[in-house]
């Protein structure tokens, strides 16, 4: 006989009442107009959400752009005094040039419960699995990226990000972006969350994600044939291995993404502790 008291499957708890209030922080235009994005200036940190708990971040959606040379649809006609410059890029009149590396120049940080050191610190693109600023599309249970088709597999190409990781916080959640670039960029976002009345259980595990890079990553045998006899070298002490995770305590290791570019390696990992 099966236990019917617990949720079954991904949507099993939809038929249960949950005493929580759902809300959203977003980049919507609070003046009532339609400029639903934020401009983040060079060197600026912007707080996307500062939420009083207890509660849970349930979904994050973000899309953004960083143009070295803006297209006509992005130029304020008042700046140049020519109204005809307000041409939407969909009409095919565009001379835009994007920063090919800007997904690495925006840092995403998340703080739980008034901590001074962020539990999440990673380049924006790498956090969502878009590695080395190279646009692409994929779907997974906790994360997805949807790249703009004409810019697919281009560096700095337009893409929309989703995260469905459940991120608890007891008293406060603060989500910040830092623009480490020397030019501004545009940020659109939704941050969906639930607020609950009761304190979080004592065994609650908090969400963590960190990014690391070895530049360069010293390897061995670059001239060897992959999967050849020469590469079957014993390594019992871990010398010169690239360490993906070293931690103590209790929690769940969720996994990591690994990217390599021009023999320079980088990774970021997610875990709850």
Provide a quick synopsis of the model.
The protein has helices spanning 77-80, 102-105, 124-127; strands at residues 20-26, 38-40, 45-52, 55-65, 67-69, 97-98, 106-112, 120-123, 138-139, 143-147, 159-163, 167-169, 172-179, 185-196, 207-214, 252-261, 264-272. The protein is mainly beta and 273 residues long.
Overview of this structure, please?
It is built from 3 helices and 17 strands. By secondary structure, it is mostly beta strands. The chain has a domain of 184 residues: Jelly Rolls, CATH 2.60.120.1390. The strands form 3 sheets. Strands 1, 2, 4, 9, 10, 11, 12 and 14 form an 8-stranded antiparallel sheet that branches. A 7-stranded mixed sheet has the order 3-13-7-8-15-17-16. Strand 7 and strand 8 form a beta hairpin. It is globular. It starts with 19 loop residues before the first strand and ends with a strand.
What is the strand and helix layout of this fold?
Layout: E1 20-26, E2 38-40, E3 45-52, E4 55-65, E5 67-69, H1 77-80, E6 97-98, H2 102-105, E7 106-112, E8 120-123, H3 124-127, E9 138-139, E10 143-147, E11 159-163, E12 167-169, E13 172-179, E14 185-196, E15 207-214, E16 252-261, E17 264-272
Parallel strand pairs: 8-15
Antiparallel strand pairs: 1-14, 2-14, 3-13, 4-11, 4-12, 4-14, 5-6, 7-8, 7-13, 9-10, 10-11, 15-17, 16-17
């Amino acid at each position: 006989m099966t236990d019917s008291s617990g949720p079954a499957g991904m949507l099993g708890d939809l038929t249960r009442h949950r005493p929580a209030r759902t809300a959203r922080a977003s980049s919507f235009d609070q003046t009532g107009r339609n400029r639903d994005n934020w401009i983040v200036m060079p060197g600026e940190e912007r707080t996307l959400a500062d939420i009083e708990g207890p509660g849970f971040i349930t979904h994050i959606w973000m899309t953004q752009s960083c143009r070295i040379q803006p297209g006509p649809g992005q130029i304020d006609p008042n700046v140049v005094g020519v109204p005809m410059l307000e041409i939407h890029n969909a009409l095919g009149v565009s001379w835009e040039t994007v920063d090919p590396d800007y997904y690495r120049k925006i840092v995403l940080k998340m703080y739980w419960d008034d901590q001074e050191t962020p539990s999440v610190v990673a380049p924006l693109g790498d956090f969502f699995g878009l590695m080395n600023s190279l646009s692409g599309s994929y779907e997974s249970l906790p994360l997805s990226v949807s790249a703009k088709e004409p810019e697919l597999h281009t560096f700095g190409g337009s893409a929309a990000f989703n995260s469905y990781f459940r991120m608890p916080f007891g008293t406060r959640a603060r989500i910040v972006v830092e623009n480490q670039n020397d030019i501004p960029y545009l940020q659109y976002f939704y941050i969906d969350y639930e607020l609950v009345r009761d304190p979080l259980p004592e065994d609650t595990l908090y969400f963590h994600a960190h990014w690391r890079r070895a530049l360069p990553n010293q390897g061995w045998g670059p001239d060897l044939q992959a999967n050849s006899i020469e590469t079957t070298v014993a390594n019992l002490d871990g010398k010169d291995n690239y360490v993906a995770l070293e931690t103590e305590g209790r929690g769940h290791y969720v996994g990591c993404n690994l990217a390599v570019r021009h023999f320079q390696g980088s990774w970021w990992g997610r875990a709850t502790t």
